[in-house]
Amino acid sequence: MPGFERFLPVLLLLGSNIFMTFAWYGHLKYRSAPLLTVIVVSWGIAFFEYTLMVPANRIGAAVYSAPQLKGMQEVITLLVFAGFSTWYLGQPLKWNHWAGFAMIVFAAWLIFLE
Q1: Spatial CB neighbours of 2, under 8 Å, sequence gap ≥ 6
Q2: H-helix or E-strand containing 98?
Q3: Most CB contacts within 10 A, which of 24, 27, 35, 76?
Q4: What is the C-alpha separation between 60 and 57, in angstroms, rounded?
Q5: Cα–Cα distance list, 78 to 83, 84, 100 (Å)
């Protein structure tokens, strides 16, 4: 399938970032949970993030540079976080959040220029 080697890392990074967003921020919905419990649960969730992130970078390195993979990962992280913040945490982003994210997307675009 043409382009599959370019598309697969994006899918893996997307899945990876969904897990990591829950690991890093999901506990904010359960602030009464003991900190140690939250840390252990977050580590458990992060394991699944790593099972997707490492292959994404390994496979992606065949077609992308390391800076390009990192830039792509940052943009995916922002998109996942925007949905997570609104849907799961009930904290929709404001104009200044979107403006800041847009600047990061622009920076990531620069990384892909030859």
Answers
A1: none
A2: helix 95-111
A3: 76
A4: 5
A5: 9, 10, 10
Q: Is residue 31 classed as helix, strand or coil in its secondary structure? A: coil
The two three-digit tokens of residue 60, written as one number: 């992606």
Nearest to 83 by CA among 9, 6, 11, 17: 17
Provide the residue-wise pLDDT of the chain in tens; the chain has 114 residues: 567 889 999 999 999 999 999 999 999 999 999 999 999 999 999 999 999 999 999 999 999 999 999 999 999 999 999 999 999 999 999 999 999 999 999 999 999 987
Smallest Cα–Cα separation from 64: which of 102, 8, 20, 15? 8
DSSP string, 37-85: HHHHHHHHHHHHHHHHHHHHHHHHTTTS-HHHHHHHHHHHHHHHHHHHH
Q: How many residues make up the chain in this entry? A: 114
Could you give the angle at which helices 4-25 and 66-87 cross, rounded to 10 degrees? 50
